[in-house]
């Protein structure tokens, strides 16, 4: 049985084509060791911004960051428990219980940072079936006002209607919801989405899989304060054998290029760059290199 998409998945295929596989100004190494038969996942990554400092020292100061994340998953009496520990001692515990033949879900999450003593609590309820996908979430964090986030998506024969509302209890004004309408074909080869955001911005995106190797996407962004100068983005992805080629172009004359290759099972290499044709002689071009080990 196919479920209606969640609100965060609306227009995701087009968004991924523009954002995934581009790591600028940095050398990035990510390691995900796998141990068969265990319930723990480990993720280690190191990102150095020194490459960006070489290319654009005025806008990209050198910076090196690291991440170590250990995630352990357990299941007791039908309740899923996930505990995540990060290198800054931040501990996150999530408890999930599935209901109504796996169509409904209750989730509770606690996030603790021992160094600062900050504690954040989150509770969420969700339900999805073929025609409806909705959730409501309440989050409280120390020294911050509680927030509530609710969203719903209605689906019928590929046509989609969704809405999302974020409310902070310190804000006594009535919030404006985000509204999205769209269409997605049954085999997901074509998708169209129009989003009206509460920050007075409208975005129209479309995504199409030409064949199993080629896919293209288009975005148009219209801002209320700058309606006479909309922004347009076009992207394409072509996969052949163990290599993936990506290109994206926007109306500001920026061209992004990405090349990924599976060097051998578990080792992936990605080289990406962005070229500023609006000021080509200025040298504000960017380059990134990434290695993924899994």
How would you characterize this protein structure?
By secondary structure, this protein is mainly beta. The chain has a single domain (7-293), classed as Porin. Helix content is 5%, strand content 61%. It is built from 2 helices and 19 strands. It has a 19-stranded mixed barrel. A hairpin with a 2-residue loop joins strand 17 (254-264) and strand 18 (267-276). It is globular and about 60 Å long. The two termini are 31 Å apart. Residues 52-59 have low confidence and may be disordered.
Please summarize what this structure is.
This protein is mostly beta strands and 294 residues long.
Layout of helices and strands, plus pairs?
Blueprint: H1 12-19, E1 27-31, E2 40-48, H2 50-55, E3 64-76, E4 79-86, E5 91-99, E6 104-113, E7 118-128, E8 132-141, E9 144-156, E10 159-168, E11 178-184, E12 190-197, E13 201-209, E14 214-223, E15 231-240, E16 243-250, E17 254-264, E18 267-276, E19 286-293
Parallel strand pairs: 1-19
Antiparallel strand pairs: 1-2, 2-3, 3-4, 4-5, 5-6, 6-7, 7-8, 8-9, 9-10, 10-11, 11-12, 12-13, 13-14, 14-15, 15-16, 16-17, 17-18, 18-19
GO molecular function: porin activity; voltage-gated monoatomic anion channel activity
Keywords: Ion transport, Membrane, Mitochondrion, Mitochondrion outer membrane, Porin, Transmembrane, Transmembrane beta strand, Transport
Family: Belongs to the eukaryotic mitochondrial porin family.
């Amino acid at each position: 049985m196919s479920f209606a998409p969640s609100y965060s998945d609306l227009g995701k295929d087009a968004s991924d084509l523009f954002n995934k596989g581009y790591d600028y100004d940095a050398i990035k190494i990510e390691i995900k060791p796998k141990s068969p038969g265990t319930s723990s996942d480990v993720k280690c990554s190191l990102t150095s911004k020194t490459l960006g400092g070489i290319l654009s020292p005025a806008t990209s100061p050198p910076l090196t960051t690291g991440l170590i994340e250990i995630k352990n998953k357990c299941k007791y009496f039908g309740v899923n428990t996930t505990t995540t520990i990060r290198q800054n001692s931040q501990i996150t515990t999530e408890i999930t219980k599935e209901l109504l033949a796996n169509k409904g879900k209750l989730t509770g999450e606690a996030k603790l940072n021992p160094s600062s003593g900050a504690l954040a609590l989150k509770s969420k309820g969700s339900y999805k079936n073929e025609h409806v996908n909705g959730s409501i979430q309440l989050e409280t964090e120390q020294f911050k006002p509680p927030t509530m986030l609710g969203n719903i998506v209605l689906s019928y024969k590929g046509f989609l209607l969704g809405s999302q509302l974020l409310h902070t209890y310190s804000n006594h004004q009535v919030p404006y919801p985000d509204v999205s309408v769209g269409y997605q074909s049954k085999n997901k080869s074509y998708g169209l989405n129009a989003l009206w955001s509460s920050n007075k911005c409208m975005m129209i995106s479309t995504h199409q899989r030409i064949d199993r190797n080629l896919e293209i996407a288009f975005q148009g962004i219209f801002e209320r304060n700058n309606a006479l100068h909309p922004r347009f983005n076009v992207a394409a992805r072509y996969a052949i054998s163990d290599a993936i080629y990506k290109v994206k172009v926007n109306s500001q004359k920026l061209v992004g290029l990405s090349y990924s290759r599976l060097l051998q099972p578990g080792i992936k290499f990605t080289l990406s760059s962005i070229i500023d044709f609006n000021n080509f002689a200025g040298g504000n071009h960017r380059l990134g290199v990434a290695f993924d080990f899994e």
